[in-house]
Amino acid sequence: MKRSGSIVIHRPADEVFAFLAEVHNETSWRDSVTGSGYIGEGSAAVGTDGYTEVSMGGKQVRMDWRISSFDPGRHVAWQLTGGPWQGGGCLHRSAVERPHRGDGGPRSQAGRCPADA
């Protein structure tokens, strides 16, 4: 099953990316997430371990993960290291051409990486 959607946020893409990439904000934008953070004294960097706790069907599930690549302000990827699932994910900020909005300049976007990234 594949799910997708979009939303327009009237903020600069770098601010949106910073918000999405901050692990402690995950509970603000993902309905099922009940807790998320770094394990120990970590901060975002390759090799930093973290966790995400989700509520699914009345059960709490914890997934541990490790940051596998990180380009501050542009890209963060993680690999699951523990929990019921395998895999990983990423967030990526990229420049994209958008329809003319007054100045005609390029716009940028921040969001989940495409499936082939």
Descriptive notes:
The chain has 117 residues and is mostly beta strands. It has a single domain, classed as START domain (Alpha-D-Glucose-1,6-Bisphosphate, Chain A, domain 4), CATH 3.30.530. The chain is 11% helix and 43% strand. The chain contains two helices and six strands, in the order ααββββββ. It has helices at 13-21, 26-29; strands spanning 33-38, 49-56, 59-71, 75-82, 88-96, 107-112. A six-stranded antiparallel sheet has the order 1-2-3-4-5-6. A hairpin with a 2-residue loop joins β2 (49-56) and β3. The longest helix is centred in the N-terminal third of the chain and has 9 residues, at 13-21. It is globular. The model has no long low-confidence stretch (mean pLDDT 80).
Distance between the termini: 18 Å
Q: What would CATH call the architecture?
A: 2-Layer Sandwich
Number of alpha- plus pi-helical segments? 2
Q: What is the makeup of the main sheet?
A: 6 strands, antiparallel
Please tally the β strands and state the result. Answer: 6
Shape: globular
CATH superfamily heading:
START domain
Give the total of domains.
Answer: 1
Short summary:
The protein has 117 residues and is mainly beta. It contains two helices and six strands; from the N terminus they run H-H-E-E-E-E-E-E.
Keywords:
117 residues, Alpha-D-Glucose-1,6-Bisphosphate, Chain A, domain 4, 6 strands
Secondary structure elements and pairings:
Blueprint: H1 13-21, H2 26-29, E1 33-38, E2 49-56, E3 59-71, E4 75-82, E5 88-96, E6 107-112
Antiparallel strand pairs: 1-2, 2-3, 3-4, 4-5, 5-6
